[in-house]
Design a protein that fits this description.
This protein is 20% helix and 28% strand. The chain is an alpha+beta fold. Strands 3, 4, 5, 6, 7, 8, 9, 10, 11, 14 and 15 form an 11-stranded mixed β-sheet that branches. Strands 1-2 form a two-stranded antiparallel sheet. Strand 1 and strand 2 form a beta hairpin.
């Protein structure tokens, strides 16, 4: 049965410390690396996919400007970003979860972060007719992936090692993407931190709409009073 993961709401409190009359921001987390406007961190321990998702969503990071950035499983939208992650974390891990997941219709989508809801792949492997959606960046291993081996490989991982399966036919290279069953295979995971869009504001009624509603209520009350008075006279 396919998994459905829901983005967690994160409540952030900024903590400052008074030292000699100055307020100093809490120190930045260790082993957090910047690329563009985002920051990235490799988890200390492996986890199943749902647990990795929840942990990433519970984290925050304060940048040099004092902005609180929300955490989520990393989403990759360019070759440069993909290469950065491999170069940064390649010596510390063999595979790591990313924030991509497949639904029952073979649609691969980023499930969190600013790209939440963006579909990047449709179908099986390129050999099976699958293809990128609207030119989005993808980097599946060879042409055999995603292969959905066992029928439960719905979660996306990034490859950091070279591994040969069939000599000269199929292999993993650092930076490749692979699908895996996140309900049974714990992996380390990459947490990305960035400013997430604010929820869409609720529309505020125009003044004339409010005034019109008040006027209508007043006219209705007056009509009911007049009707009651007429009935009493009869």
């Amino acid at each position: 049965m396919h998994k459905i993961i829901t983005q967690l709401a994160v409540s952030v409190t900024t903590v400052s410390t008074a030292v000699f009359g100055f307020f100093l921001a809490a120190p930045a987390q260790a082993n957090v690396f910047q690329f563009g406007d985002s920051f990235y961190e490799l988890s200390d321990s492996p986890a199943l996919y749902q647990d990795a998702f929840n942990d990433a969503a519970s984290r925050t990071f304060e940048n040099a400007n004092g902005e609180i950035l929300n955490g989520y499983l990393a989403t990759i939208t360019s070759e440069a970003e993909n290469n950065f992650l491999v170069d940064t974390f390649g010596d510390d891990v063999g595979f790591a979860w990313l924030g991509g997941q497949k639904d029952q219709n073979e649609a691969w989508t980023w499930i969190n972060g600013p790209e939440a809801g963006l579909q990047f792949w449709q179908g099986k492997s390129p050999r099976g007719g699958g293809s990128a959606v609207d030119g989005t960046y993808v980097n599946w291993a060879d042409t055999f992936w995603p292969d959905n081996a066992g029928g439960q490989e719905d979660d996306l991982r990034l490859v950091f090692i070279e591994e040969v399966f069939f000599e000269g036919v199929s292999e993993f290279q650092p930076g490749d993407w692979d699908d895996l069953d996140g309900e049974t295979r714990p992996l380390k995971y990459i947490i990305e931190y960035s400013l997430l869009p604010d929820p869409a504001p609720q529309p505020v009624p125009e003044p004339f709409t409010i005034l019109g509603s008040i006027t209508a209520l007043g006219m209705g009350a007056a009509f009911k009073k007049k009707l009651a008075s007429t009935t009493e006279k009869k």
